[in-house]
Amino acid sequence: MEKAIQILIYFHAAFGGIALLAGLLAIIAKKGKTLHRKAGLVFFYSMMLSGITALVIAVLPNHESPFLFAVGIFSLYFVFTGNRALKFKRKDPVLTLDKWIAVIMIATGSLMILLPVLLTKNIDVVLFVFAIVGITFSIKDLRLYKNPKRLRKMWLKLHLGKMLGGYISATTAFVVVNKFFPSIYGWFIPGIIGSFMIAYWQRKINKKKSSISF
């Protein structure tokens, strides 16, 4: 059993490594072109497989980890919703699945905050921050789903923002596992840098839309 779990861990790490490389290629490639789309697909499927294997590992005997399970849900949320955002450019997309994903993320985020308090009487700072980010994005998603017209206009921002959020998750895991930074700094430095990247692309999209409108 333990040998099978170790193989699963290797698969998890391998898919995560592929996601890092493919995601970087998708970021630097010209958006909308063939290289960006193909690298993005490799990133998406690699992240999904890495996230799913993380969920499985986190519930196996002697490897139980609510922390790994919660972060796996967090990563899958960003990547899956980032990919789903591509469908929002269509008129009247079916949003049932998207609403359920947002609800699951809110529930998971709430557990990420409450469980450490109930079990250890302390707030886990890392889980708390991840939870707040996930809950905030999910609430914004649910509000946006009520306005299909605005959702259609926002699809590109949602796609880039969420996929970059997924890449931040992969980078954070890589940084933490390899202990590039002391203490809990490794959990937050990729997110801080990634936030500037997201802001950069959001501004670029806004400028492009402004130039088109004129």
Q: How many structural domains does the protein architecture include?
A: 1
Order of helices and strands: HHHHHHH
Q: So how many helices?
A: 7
The percent range for strand residues is under 5%
Characterize the main sheet: none
Which oligomeric form is depicted? single chain
Number of strands: 0
Computed CA radius of gyration, to the nearest angstrom: 18 Å
Describe the structure.
The chain is mainly α. The protein has one domain (2-207). The protein is 82% helix and 0% strand. Helix 6 runs antiparallel to helix 7 (185-213). The model has no long low-confidence stretch (mean pLDDT 87).
Keywords, separated by commas or semicolons:
single chain, 214 residues, mainly alpha, globular
